[in-house]
Design a protein that fits this description.
- The protein contains 10 helices and 8 strands.
- The protein has about 325 residues and is an alpha/beta fold.
- Strands 7-5-6-4-1-2-3-8 form an 8-stranded mixed sheet, sandwiched between helices.
């Protein structure tokens, strides 16, 4: 018997594209069922992340028309990563494999067959990796390259040019469930699980309709979450910087005493002022970085739920595995 596949699709204000997304995913999954690549119990699970438009109403409509469409409605907007995790945790109780993808149709659904084939060949995780970034602006291409290189320098194990288009087996999801972080960065967490993985390259399309849910401000916040959630190197860099400044200050002190003893006192308000501003800036920057880590520790110790499900549209005739 072929394995049960769940497609998990986080949605936030996607009313403009959701009908088209459902149409394309339905065609793909029914074709795979006919080709006996997956079980006929496979489903498409939409996760409504507190949308302000008609997204949830459309999901309810789709479910009433065809029970291959399932839905999870979060109690409020929790962000893409939490919504995705919520959908994955629901799906793992009913499926053998899950594939997560965005609702905007930028991820190429035609490679889903290759994902599943790699799974049958023994991979517990299959990463969808962009073959190029020709559809991105120069600014986005440059910032993405800087981000991935910076994460690599900081020791974060990530797959280059991979977002959240991936397949995960049931045991890989069970492994992910063992990570209890509140501050989620799934692109960095999934490689930590350690099971066999493979890569499928694909060409990312233009967004079908609507606007991007990741403007520059959110992208920067997302990058900071990734760095501070998975690496302590920034704090170590601050420690090294502190020792360096202390060493330079010691040399400056010896030089000042020597100048005083030889009677060549140098008065220079400019250099003094610059030194004060430089040290003050470094101190404030260092406190800010440390504050980011302290804030995350504060959130983790509260052990708040990462998501709360308000409603489910799940077929009750199938018990969880």
């Amino acid at each position: 018997m072929n394995d049960i596949l769940y497609l998990v699709v986080p949605c936030y204000d996607e009313e403009e594209v959701l009908h088209e997304t459902a149409k394309r995913l339905l065609y793909k999954i029914t074709t795979m069922i006919k080709n006996k690549l997956i079980s006929d119990e496979s489903k498409i699970l939409f996760v409504n992340d507190g949308s302000k438009d008609k997204t949830w109403s459309i999901i309810e409509e789709l479910h009433s028309q065809n029970n291959i469409f399932l839905g999870v409605n979060l109690s409020r907007n929790r962000g893409h990563q939490n919504a995705l995790l919520g959908g994955l945790m629901v799906a793992k109780d009913y499926s053998d494999i899950t594939i997560s993808l965005d609702a905007d149709l930028q991820d190429d659904v035609d490679v889903i067959d290759k994902f599943v084939e790699q799974y049958y060949d023994g991979s517990d995780v299959v990463y969808g990796v962009r073959s190029s970034r020709q559809t991105d602006t120069f600014f986005k291409r440059t910032t993405a390259m800087v981000f991935y290189k910076l994460m690599s320098i900081l020791g974060v194990d990530m797959v280059y040019n991979h977002a959240d288009y991936r397949l995960m087996s049931k045991r890989a999801l069970e492994g992910l469930n063992e990570y209890k972080e509140v501050n989620l960065f799934l692109r960095g967490m999934v490689p930590l699980i350690g099971y066999k993985y493979s890569i499928v390259e694909y060409e990312r399309h233009e967004r079908f309709a609507g606007e991007s849910k990741y403007p520059l401000k959110k992208m920067i916040a997302f990058a900071l979450d990734g760095i501070t959630s998975l690496s302590i190197k920034p704090i170590r860099l601050i420690t090294g910087l502190g020792f360096t400044i202390f060493f330079i200050s010691g040399i400056a002190l010896i030089y000042s005493i020597a100048v005083k003893l030889f009677g060549n006192t140098v008065t220079g308000w400019t250099s003094l002022t610059l030194s004060i501003w430089m040290l003050g800036g470094i101190q404030l920057l260092s406190l800010g970085v440390i504050g980011e880590y302290v804030g995350k520790i504060y959130n983790e110790t509260k052990q708040r739920p990462r998501f709360i499900i308000a409603d489910k549209l799940i077929n009750t005739d199938k018990k969880a595995n």
